[in-house]
Amino acid sequence: YFPLLYIKSKKSKKITSGTNYTVRGCSGAYLYYGQDNWGDGVNLYAINIKTKKKKHMVNYVGSVIVSKGKVMTTTISGDANNNPICIFNLNGSGKKKVAEGCSAVIKKGKIYYVKINLKTRKCKVYQCSLKGKNKKAVTGWLNRVPSKYLLAGKYWIVEPRRKRISVLCEGGCKMSLWLQEEMEKIQQDRSRSALSPKYILALVFVFAGIEAAVFLIGRMIPGYKILTFFGVIGFAGFFVMAFLYVKTKSSLSKPKLPFAAKCLQKLELSSEELRQFDEEMKAEPLLFLQNGKRFDKSITITEHYLKAAFLYRKEIDYGIFRLSDIDATWSATSKNPVILKPKGRIFDILLLDAKGQRMGGVSMENEKDYKIFNDALEKYAPNIRLNIPAEEIRKNSQHT
């Protein structure tokens, strides 16, 4: 939760609380915070520190800047793009899109923002007023944007070989190119399965056909309450289409690969380590274990990392671990929980750090995959102690 600390009295007061919440700015009377969706930014709210009354501002927020009695937000979702840059009043009201770009700062009462040429992947810096007027370019097309136009600790750089622009964030934490590509794949899958105009039109025709059938039946049967059935069918049609629309919209906006993004953030990779990570994720792995012939449960081992796939809310996600961080494994077997035609046992393996704390885990549905996984760890990560006894785990937990 977020406490408000009074400097003089050294007392604190709870303002709000939530899962994965992060504070992005403060104007004095208002705090700007929200749920951090990692690669998909923050769902931003403004909350009055005294009354605790909150107001939703915008989703997919990358940065928040408070200046000149206004709040400016930039948008981030996956790969860099020309996304909305918005201005708000301090209380979160009065939303206005002033420009489209991938980063922005306020200097001397003017907004400076970066625009991308999506064909050449080059950048150009523009400026405009806080009302979005008097837009003009202040640089030519560049491969790298001068830091004076961007937030402290951030810059944008073009990687010509990949034809992609990457974000280098505060502390040198750059978003993985591999992760961006995986997010793009998921977004494409969501778009393909989204409610298309053709599908909506087909639903309209279906319900129109039902209404026509009701009308014809009413003409043939005396005393038939046509209007009542018309209303029921019309309401049902509206409800179905509204439900499908809301479901599709929420599906498109929910975070992509949240667990993988969180794992990478915890690893705190340097730029060089992140480049190495991307290369290993895209290269032929030392081991790719399909794990029961299911890609959504696959396990990948590279020279320095272990990646375990799993389903999260019907979409694939990954647990990512540095092999050198894994000190030991602990194994357990259980009956297959499948009710119809259960086969064999489930092999669960916990990954433990040097303090004996659980980092994560993997599961396998057959003994063959279990042996292949253990043999691979023994071969490629010989420093990991395999299948330690349960007593050692209990001792470590009591000690901590």
Structure description:
- There is one protein chain.
- By secondary structure, the chain is α+β, with helices and mostly antiparallel strands.
- The protein contains 7 helices and 22 strands.
- It has helices at 177-193, 197-220, 226-253, 258-267, 271-282, 367-380, 390-399; strands at residues 2-5, 12-16, 21-26, 30-36, 42-48, 54-67, 70-75, 83-89, 96-101, 104-107, 110-116, 123-129, 136-137, 155-159, 164-168, 287-289, 299-301, 305-312, 315-322, 328-335, 345-352, 358-364.
- The strands form 6 sheets. Strands 3-4-5-6-7-8-9 form a 7-stranded antiparallel β-sheet, with no helix packed on it. A 4-stranded antiparallel β-sheet has the order 10-11-12-13, with no helix packed on it.
- β4 (30-36) and β5 (42-48) form a beta hairpin.
- α2 packs antiparallel against α3 (226-253).
- The protein starts with a strand and ends with a helix.
- The model is unreliable at 152-173 (pLDDT under 50).
